[in-house]
Design a protein that fits this description.
heterodimer; A: mainly alpha; B: mainly alpha; MetI-like fold; 15 helices; about 70% helix
């Protein structure tokens, strides 16, 4: 129980640290939201009065009349109550939460599925490669996947476009989430179009993410297979499959779980670079847009959301480890 | 939490004070195929960074000078990779861009490693409340989403210079290594050779520098390679998104301009792909070296000879 409480404490503490960082970074850095906002409003022809700008600034924690500390506490309160302010970027004035809500499903669908697939397939391949030491798979796996895991996401994405989605008779689309002119509905045509648009970005994520899982799982398997309890199981004459899955893989899998939890949390960030290259309208792409248009409130809300997601996943993983691993329970 | 995040393979079996056998590491690298390929690639990049004119003997003056050649030429014998929209030779730019990309990787990698050594080993060796605070700090930085954080930082820092990119990479890149070094340090704490140093009455700083650190060389090296790999990929990604200094000459900036001119879709795939390939190859060289060091320090992970391997587990 003490273990769980400590993890919960860590969760709250990190969340607070992230919010504090998120609050103080803009206050310490040279680029001020007030200037950006003023420039933007003037640029769009809507000359705003100082009062209007101040009111807008106050709505996301930059009230120039309040002291730093009181701004900080207002900011914390707003964050916790999901009062995340309005965009000052391309979609000026739109509620940040609404914007995020529109992009979230696309990222969850694309990056979420790709991440889970990479983990499941990678783990299985790693188990087999580690189990059949010196086999064909084990000979091929390390060199190939050391290389793929070092490839930059965006480069693989560009390569995928060059190979499959370039020119007049392209095999696959290279842009967006579904064909222009389709309505968002549960029709076969729409779903087909969505899937077609997802193949390349998902493939890119799969290819670059899978190597890490395969290699760590293989290495963990090899370490675990040298344990006495595996030898014991062999001596008892258990079937190979039971030793592989029930004895070795189960234990080798535990250290990977927290890594998986974190990468699940990162799903929310979308893979920024992949979504950017494919122009996929998920949260990652939104991250890019927020940067390009110096949309501070949106940027901060996105960062907060990702941090929150990672923390929740890590917390869930801690609970899972608590259930799966008696040693964690015993340590207390 | 710290224990769950540690890569067990890297931690177990690395404890062997390396004394006596001079050149053992060198021989180990040459004997490992992954390490030799990685090292060869790395040296090639170093050569290009230090003496770029060796690779482009025909080029004189500033490779970034505008309008030296007709713009947007396709690859040919004169211009192996074509030219940019401003009439710069892409191959020349690629060679000259090595320097900045490599410098970012090495400095950010070294900085992050130094920070993780300081924090990780201090936490492990001092223990108690210091350890609690430091490892909590490490834990927080481990779970903070780095790439988004980097983007937030770089945006606020005003789409920054080389220095900003490097500092941001160091700040976000040290936690993983610190965590591993701390775990390794904890396992060393009660070893006899440290106890004897304490009994001899050596100062703490002496013990940490001359007794603890040498036993961790392989882990520190691994942590450096990991951070350098992370720095190469992340810096290129940042510059690609336009968050670097777009007038500097590096692979990431080249990618930014290629994307900016939508080189890929208007029929100039080499322009868009070559700088990325360079990033990938530098990354691969770090990754190969890193994995090879894992194999060298943990013989169980090495490739097995086929005929023996079949026997072992059937």
């Amino acid at each position: 129980m003490r273990y769980l409480l400590r993890r919960l404490g860590f969760f709250v503490l990190t969340l607070w640290a992230a919010m504090t960082l998120n609050f103080f970074i803009p206050h310490l850095m040279p680029g001020s939201p007030a200037q950006v906002l003023k420039a933007k409003l003037n640029h769009s022809g809507r000359i705003a009065s100082t009062d209007q700008i101040n009111a807008l600034l106050a709505s996301f924690g930059f009230d120039p009349h309040a002291g730093l500390m009181s701004q900080y506490f207002t900011y914390l309160k707003d964050m916790v109550t999901f009062n995340w302010g309005v965009s000052i970027g391309d979609s000026l004035g739109a509620n940040v939460t609404t914007l995020i809500g529109q992009a979230l499903p696309w990222t969850l669908g694309l990056v979420g599925v790709a991440t889970i697939m990479a983990f499941v397939i990678g783990t299985l391949v790693g188990i087999v490669a580690g189990w059949r030491r010196g086999g064909l798979l084990d000979g091929v796996v390390p060199p190939v996947f050391v290389v793929t895991s070092a490839l930059p996401y965006f480069w693989v994405a560009l390569l995928a476009i060059a190979l499959f989605a370039d020119g007049a008779h392209a095999l696959l689309p290279n842009d967006g989430n579904y064909d222009l002119g389709l309505k968002e509905e549960w029709s076969l045509q729409f779903i087909g179009s969505v899937l077609k648009h997802a193949i390349l970005p998902a493939g890119t994520i799969l290819l670059t993410a899978i190597g890490g899982w395969i290699l760590t799982m293989r290495n963990n398997m090899i370490t675990t297979l040298a344990e006495d309890y595996v030898r014991m199981a062999r001596a008892k004459g258990m079937s190979s499959r039971r030793i592989m899955m029930g004895y070795a893989a189960r234990n080798a899998f535990l250290p990977n779980l927290s890594g998986f939890a974190m990468s699940l949390g990162y799903v929310i960030a979308g893979t920024i670079l992949v979504e950017y290259v494919f122009n996929y309208p998920g949260l990652g792409h939104m991250f890019y847009l927020a940067t390009a248009s110096t949309d501070y409130p949106l940027l901060q809300a996105l960062f907060m959301l990702v941090t929150f997601a990672v923390l929740v996943c890590v917390l869930l993983c801690d609970f899972a480890v608590f259930l799966l691993d008696p040693r964690a329970r015993a340590k207390g | 939490m710290t224990t769950t995040l540690v890569d067990t393979a890297a931690v177990t079996g690395t404890v062997h004070p390396r004394k006596g056998r001079r050149g053992g590491l060198w021989r180990a690298i040459l004997g490992n195929r992954k390490a030799s390929v990685g090292l060869l690639l790395f040296l090639l990049f170093c050569l290009a960074a230090a003496f770029p004119h060796l690779f482009v003997p025909w080029s004189h003056g500033d490779p970034q000078a505008v309008g030296q050649f007709p713009s947007e030429l396709h690859p040919s014998l004169q211009h192996w990779m074509g030219t940019t929209q401003l009439g710069q030779d892409i191959y020349t730019e690629l060679i000259y861009g090595t320097r900045e990309s490599l410098i970012i990787a090495l400095i950010a990698g070294a900085g992050a490693t130094a920070l993780s050594v300081i924090i990780g080993i201090t936490a492990a060796y001092l223990g108690g409340a210091v350890d609690d605070v430091l490892s909590m700090f490490t834990g927080i930085f481990l779970v903070l989403p780095t790439f988004p954080l980097i983007i937030v930082l770089a945006t606020y820092a005003g789409k920054g210079s080389l220095a900003v990119v490097i500092v941001v990479l160091i700040v976000t890149g040290w936690a993983y290594g610190a965590n591993q070094l701390r775990a390794q340090g904890l396992s060393l704490r009660n070893r006899d050779f440290l106890e004897s140093a304490r009994v001899r009455g050596e100062r703490r700083s002496y013990i940490i520098t001359f007794e603890v650190l040498p036993t961790m060389v392989s882990l520190i090296l691994a942590s450096f390679l990991g951070s350098a790999l992370y720095a190469v990929l992340t810096a290129a990604g940042l510059q690609f998104l336009g968050l670097g200094d777009s007038s500097s000459l590096s692979w990431g900036t080249m990618l930014y301009w290629a994307q900016n001119q939508s080189a890929l879709l208007s029929g100039y795939p080499v322009w868009a792909l070559a700088p990325g390939l360079a990033v990938a190859l530098l990354g691969v060289s770090f990754a190969l070296l890193n994995y090879a060091f894992d194999e060298i320090s943990n013989p169980a992970l090495r490739p097995v000879r086929r005929h023996r391997g079949k026997r072992a587990h059937s």
